[in-house]
Design a protein that fits this description.
Strand order of the largest sheet: 1-2
Shape: globular
Strand content: under 5%
Order of helices and strands: HHHHHHHHHHHHHHEE
Number of strands: 2
Distance between the termini: 51 Å
Number of domains: 1
Largest sheet: 2 strands, antiparallel
Radius of gyration: 20 Å
Structural class: mainly alpha
Length: 321
């Protein structure tokens, strides 16, 4: 390991070598290794180094032209290590430097989401929500490959975690839920995203509690709770969201995920059967059904297999009674 670090330092000091994709890959990989050891400051120092190398190359899009994987890995991993996005996003048409949208992002919308309207949300939140809704609707006919889903997740999370102005309470709930849902859909890639999940879930629950007297049971509330349930697995917030699930289910006369899923899917949903098993197990357990919990599996080193869904760890049979 020490020999590798010495070699990397030599490459960084040589401008011609420092400009190579392999050097940037090595620096950001070293950052993840140090972060995994608990050496946070050292990891952050390597992230700073990777960003400087990106700038020397002319920006993230310049690297994207030669190695899309390197560009995505640096932007994603640096965000996970620092805790906030380290790169801007391009605009909706793919102009400027930064994390780029997928081609489907700029396709005109043919139908508005039924659960929300433009008047309900701040412009930035509505823009992301409505475009995601259109992409997910089209994915029913032509499913998104995993690599495309990762690129979409990277763009959406970067865009939503860097709002230009403070969102309203409802917009912040929807913003947090979209971040969490994209992370859930993708699953952990390159490095665990538990820290960002926990921070965003805490913000979602806080907004839930602040809005308690203003909320009425609806498909939107069910969708927010369902995402929070899965995202809060293993945290103190989970009990709060289990109670939310029970309250809304009782009010609407819903008894299981099978009753509820149609309403939840009407809000914003990407069909992914394995991921739905995770949602179903968390929801049905919250309602008191005797069923095992389905959770996500280990981190994927990279999203190379386009036909593969996020890794799932099936602890036992998935049927609920």
């Amino acid at each position: 390991m020490s020999d590798s670090v010495v070699l990397l330092r030599r490459k960084v000091q040589d401008v011609s070598l420092a400009m190579q994709d392999s050097t940037i890959n090595s620096v950001i990989t070293l950052a993840t290794i140090e972060y995994g050891k608990g050496n946070i400051e050292t990891a952050q120092m390597h992230v700073t180094g990777a960003k400087k190398l990106i700038n020397m190359r002319g920006g993230l899009q310049a690297v994207m032209q030669t190695s899309p994987l390197t560009a995505r890995m640096v932007s994603w991993v640096s965000m996970l290590i620092i805790g906030i996005p380290q790169f801007d996003t391009q605009d909706d048409q793919g102009n400027g430097d930064g994390v780029s949208p997928i081609p489907e992002w700029s396709i005109p919308q043919t139908a508005d989401p039924p659960a929300l309207s433009e008047a309900d949300l701040d412009p930035e939140t509505w823009n992301v929500f409505s475009r995601l809704y259109g992409i997910f609707q089209r994915a029913k006919r032509a499913p998104l490959p995993l690599l495309r889903l990762h690129a979409l997740t990277c763009f959406v999370v970067h865009r939503l975690l860097t709002p230009t102005e403070p969102p309203s309470a409802l917009s912040d709930c929807v913003r947090c839920a979209m971040v969490l849902y994209m992370l859930i859909l993708q699953g952990p890639i390159y490095y665990p995203h538990a820290a960002i999940m926990h921070k965003t879930t805490a913000q979602l629950v806080t907004q839930f509690q602040d809005r308690a007297r203003l909320r009425a049971s609806s498909p939107l509330e069910l969708w927010l709770v369902a995402i929070g349930l899965v995202a809060s697995h293993g945290t103190p917030f989970n009990k709060v969201l289990q109670e939310e699930a029970r309250v809304h289910s009782t009010f609407l006369g819903l008894h299981s995920w099978n009753d509820t899923s149609v309403l939840i899917k009407s809000v914003l949903w990407l069909e992914a059967p394995q991921t739905e098993m995770v949602f179903q197990s968390h929801w049905d357990m919250a309602l008191g059904h005797d069923c095992p919990l389905v959770t996500f599996g280990s981190v994927q080193s990279a999203p190379f297999n386009d036909g593969q869904e996020a890794s799932i760890d099936f602890q036992t049979e998935t049927g609920c009674r």
